[in-house]
Amino acid sequence: MSSNFFAMVNRMKLIDRWALMRNTSKENIAEHSHSVAVIAHALALIGNKKFGKNYDAQRAALLALYHDTTEVITGDMPTPVKYYNDSIKNVYKDIEHIAGERLLDMLPEEFKADYRPFFEAEESDRELWALVKAADKISALIKCIEEHRMGNLEFETALKAQEEKIKSIDLPEVEYFSEYFLPAYYLTLDEHTK
Q1: In this predicted structure, what is the pLDDT of residue 115?
Q2: CA distances, 166 to each of 29, 30, 33, 102, 178 (Å)
Q3: What pLDDT was estimated at residue 87?
Q4: Closest by Cα among 144, 115, 91 to 5
Q5: What pLDDT shows up at residue 189?
Q6: Rounded alpha-carbon distances, angstroms, from residue 83 to 87, 89, 90, 92, 167
Q7: CA-closest candidate to residue 60, choices 153, 141, 131
């Protein structure tokens, strides 16, 4: 019996983000997931090395790689729509759950338990999912910074909103990343190489 699971995961590159906004550079959910995985991994390492945590950094990266996979079925719901009110947010969570189940059903039975944690958060991964959510927000901020730096005023309000969201995250790993790594995203290539 053949499986469609990985062919569907491969379609992440076809789902664009920021669809309601003009973009100078398009971003798909595969690119975004890579960015989130890199940042989640870094946040976990920061937690381990600077704050005495015992995160599984590789697991954080893996959870991040799959965090938006259900969007190959649902598409990317713009944040202002997804979080407009509790009713829409709850319905969308149900839709995401159904999409995750549909993807899991594409796997042979012996692999489902291995992939289920990517679609249904387990209590044992709670702290890692917090890092993934923070990394997701940081990745969104980076996109806003890049667009704003290219003169795209469409992202001006989003940039300010994302900066405030990052400041409101109560994780020392995020504070550290914000202090030591985020400023470089505001620089040009020439400023990076000085």
Answers
A1: 96
A2: 20, 22, 18, 33, 8
A3: 85
A4: 115
A5: 82
A6: 9, 5, 9, 9, 19
A7: 131
Helix, strand or coil, per DSSP, at residue 17: coil
Q: Locate 134 and state its tokens.
A: 């923070």
| Angstrom distances, CA of residue 174 to CA of 22, 51, 112, 139, 180 | 28, 11, 32, 12, 10
pLDDT score for 75:
86
- Region of residue 16 (left: phi > 0; alpha: psi -120 to 50; beta: else): beta
Q: Are 45 and 58 within 8 A, CB to CB?
A: no
**CA end-to-end span of the chain:** 56
Q: Which amino acid is at 74?
A: T
State how far the Cα of 104 lies from the Cα of 69, in Å rounded to an integer.
11
Q: Average pLDDT for residues 22-34, to the nearest whole number?
A: 95
